[in-house]
Design goal:
The complex is a heterodimer.
Chain A lengths: L1 E5 L3 H11 L2 E6 L6 E5 L20 H4 L3 E8 L4 E3 L8 E6 L1 H14 L7 H8 L1 E6 L22 E6 L4 E6 L2 H7 L8 E3 L24 H9 L6 H5 L6 E7 L5 E8 L9 E2 L3 E2 L4 H20 L9 H4 L7 H13 L5 H15 L13
Parallel strand pairs in A: 2-6, 6-7, 7-8
Antiparallel strand pairs in A: 1-9, 1-10, 2-3, 4-5, 4-12, 8-9, 11-12, 13-14
Helix pairs in contact in A: 6-8
Chain B lengths: L44 E11 L3 E7 L9 E6 L3 E6 L7 E6 L4 H6 L7 E8 L12 E7 L3 H13 L7 E7 L8 H10 L3 E6 L13 H8 L6 E6 L2 H13 L7 E4 L15 E2 L2 E2 L6 E3 H4 L5
Parallel strand pairs in B: 7-8, 7-10, 8-9, 10-11
Antiparallel strand pairs in B: 1-2, 1-6, 2-5, 3-4, 3-6, 11-14, 12-13
Helix pairs in contact in B: 4-5
Bound molecules: iron/sulfur cluster (2 copies) and FE2/S2 (inorganic) cluster.
Chain lengths: ~375, ~300
């Protein structure tokens, strides 16, 4: 179910949303023009709306800020005070399908049955997600076609150039409520599909377990990767965090905080007595990718990467792990065989082995 | 202490219609979860230290009063405000108190052992999936511990003492560097005297002239040749020690399914979220810290 809106009315639609809700959208910041997810404070801010490219820093900061206050404490009395869980009612606009799926991945981890992360829940539960559909991939590094994206949103906004209109696809009951009675916005009921798109770049296999010991991993990790952790910072699904106490100069009061962390750092696995459980560079480099393509799917059923391509675009060492895997895979499959039939047989073996039980090319699905 | 009936599968997830013993209900068992109002996931709960004792030359026992619902093999996250949190295994089995054996090697533990009876100790937990004791009913148990690794096994022994009739022979092989490092000597000796459990000790670097067992526990295991039939081995200690014990056990005819090990990892959240404790896709905090050896033996990093 959905609605049509004339293309030129998109801005008044957003204005109406901003009037009623706290609206967050990708705005070019003043100064250098970098697009970031930012609150629309005044209607004029929408003039800085950037829908051309996907912001390099994803929306994950909205649900888990880079530095988050858990509680304050008093060392003298051992008292814990000022616990912070703020319910954040807001609407986020401009999320691409990959980033919406990144939120789905984080929801699966933080809003589990056994344990629910209270801070994440508060930030997430009352936030509505309004997508912006990619008719064409915004970056040459997008490879979402190879990932199992699903329609995970309250509303998806899709431009229909031939109709000179935008189509608002409703993905949840909350989405209907959101669209109801917006001032000055006339919506016409309509139905249109929200299909997956083709990307130039593709990840040819997600079945990386058999090639764990391939020498290319080690070569890239030891000769090229700077372990700067930029890829984990820009990644919308990387969610590892660290917890630490920050005491003020009175040596009495302080705050327990959590902050983003990265499995690429050696410190990540250090325990008391200075033992490191993942000291080798290659093992750390691989852990990030294997967590996304092998470990997470084995528990949660979908890969923990959405193919947004940020980690590739932002890497200062120009490391492209998708190409790396494709090359390893090409070598493994061997030359001279028919590529398509290879792919099909491989899919079957993957299915029977039970891991990554789905097709590698995503276009024909859903 | 009840016998838990939960079946450990090596995975954390579960289907609908499970009972309160299921891993997905882990948070329900949290310390004082029910009686207090708004307790957030990472909030430490204040408890009072009711006993403090030096254990051997390295360790300190801290007992806190807590109506906790925990199983052998689980752990608590211990907070010292201003210093941080550290996972500490449980060395007791009681619904009235929890014992921790603390080896002061890190920031938090060093600070924790400075506390005294009457002081507040902040805890959250219990976390992790302990030994599935219900699965071991009517079996023989072999407990092999090294150094600090004896502490969680003492929790198992406390549990076994409460349910002695349900289990067969329990033999323990505990190794230390030196005799003076031994922990719980009094309690274990009492059990030994009463014939409840049997104990063998080994010391790898005793002082010159020491008359007892010198060497590693593996040598004494090899000599004793415990019958692997219907026996479960619980191994806990430093990684190299556990690996050599497993090798010995395999040679004695134990399969990997009969061996349970316990892993140590850096932990921040203890709920399977922060990613620090991952061994491949397994979370030491929520799927462990005890693992059946065949579940984890091939895991890389
Ligand atoms: S951004 Fe590139 S160089 Fe930096 S850690 Fe990631 S892969 Fe390595
Ligand atoms: S791993 Fe790279 S492509 Fe995948 S979601 Fe993270 S940043 Fe995007
Ligand atoms: S301690 Fe955070 S995931 Fe295990």
């Amino acid at each position: 179910m959905g609605f049509l809106l004339p293309r030129r009315k998109l801005e008044s639609f957003l204005r109406a949303l901003a009037k009623r809700h706290t609206l967050i959208a990708p705005l070019q910041r003043e100064g250098d023009g970098l697009a970031t997810f930012e609150t629309v404070k005044r209607p004029e801010d929408l003039a800085r709306l950037d829908l051309e490219r996907n912001p390099p820093f994803s929306a994950k900061k909205l649900f888990m800020p880079p530095y988050e206050h858990l509680f304050a404490y008093d060392m003298a009395t051992q008292e814990v005070t000022d616990k912070k869980v703020e319910e954040k009612r807001r609407v986020v606009f401009g999320l691409r399908l990959c980033d919406l799926n990144a939120i789905k991945i984080q929801d699966a981890l933080f809003l589990r049955r056994d344990f629910t992360d209270d801070q994440y829940r508060a930030a997430r539960e009352e936030t509505l997600l309004v997508g912006w559909y990619c008719n064409t991939p915004p970056s040459p590094n997008c490879f979402c076609e190879s990932m199992e994206l699903t329609n995970y949103y309250d509303v998806m906004v899709r431009e229909l150039p031939d109709k000179d209109a935008v189509y608002l696809d409703v993905g949840s009951p909350a989405g209907i409520v959101l669209l109801e009675g917006l001032e000055g916005v006339k919506l016409v009921e309509h139905h249109e599909a929200v299909p997956r798109i083709a990307t130039r770049k593709r990840l040819n296999t997600r079945d990386v377990r058999p090639v764990y010991d391939h020498p290319s991993w080690k070569k890239t990790a030891e000769e090229r990767c700077l372990f700067c952790q930029r890829c984990t910072i820009v990644c919308p699904t990387c969610m590892c965090f660290d917890v630490y106490d920050k005491t003020s100069e009175d040596v009495r009061h302080g705050v327990r905080k959590r902050t983003w962390d990265s499995c690429l750092s050696k410190e990540f696995t250090r325990v008391a007595g200075n033992h490191y459980f993942r000291p080798e560079r290659a093992a750390r480099f691989k852990h990030r990718i294997y967590h996304k393509l092998a470990y997470y799917p084995e528990v949660f059923g979908t890969p923990m990467c959405t193919g947004c391509g940020r980690c590739i675009s932002e890497c200062p060492a120009n490391i492209d792990w998708v190409e790396l895997i494709n090359e390893i895979e090409k070598e493994r499959v061997g030359s001279g065989t028919n590529a398509t039939s290879e792919k099909n047989t491989r899919n079957e073996t993957i299915t029977t082995s039970g891991t990554n039980a789905r097709s590698v090319t995503g276009a024909e699905r859903r | 202490m009840k016998l838990t009936t939960v079946k450990k599968t090596g995975k954390g997830a579960c289907e609908d219609g499970c009972g309160p013993e299921c891993p997905c209900h882990a948070n329900d068992h949290r310390l004082e979860r029910k009686d207090r109002g708004e307790i957030l996931l990472y909030d430490p709960i204040p408890t009072t230290i009711i006993k403090k004792e030096r254990l051997g030359s390295r360790h300190t026992l801290l007992r806190v009063k807590a109506h906790a619902d925990y199983a052998p093999g689980q752990f608590f996250q211990l907070t010292v405000l201003g210093y941080g949190e550290a996972p500490i295994s449980i060395a007791s089995a009681s619904t009235e108190h929890v014992d921790f054996v603390i080896n002061p090697v890190g920031l938090v533990t060093k600070e924790a052992v400075r506390k005294n009876v009457g002081d507040t100790l902040l805890l959250r937990g219990p976390y992790g999936y302990g030994y599935p004791m219900a699965e071991f009913v009517n079996k023989r148990l072999l407990l092999v511990g090294g150094g600090c690794g004896v502490a969680p096994l003492k929790g198992v022994l406390d549990f076994l003492a409460l349910h002695r009739a349900e289990y067969r022979d329990v033999s323990c092989y505990f190794g230390y560097r030196e005799p003076k490092e031994s922990i719980f000597t009094r309690e274990l000796a009492a059990w030994e005297r009463q014939g409840v459990f049997s104990f063998t000790y080994a010391y790898s670097q005793p002082q010159a002239g020491f008359k007892g067992n010198v060497g590693f526990v593996t040598a004494y295991l090899e000599a004793a040749k415990p019958d692997p039939h219907d026996t479960i081995a619980l191994v806990c200690g430093p990684t190299p020690m556990m690996l050599s014990v497993i090798k010995t056990l395999n040679a004695l005819g134990f399969t990997d399914e009969q061996v349970w090990i316990s892993h140590e990892r850096h932990m921040k959240c203890a709920t399977g979220m922060c990613g620090h404790c991952m061994i491949e896709g397994k979370y030491t905090c929520k799927d462990g810290p005890v693992f059946r050896w065949d579940w984890i033996k091939n895991a890389k990093g």
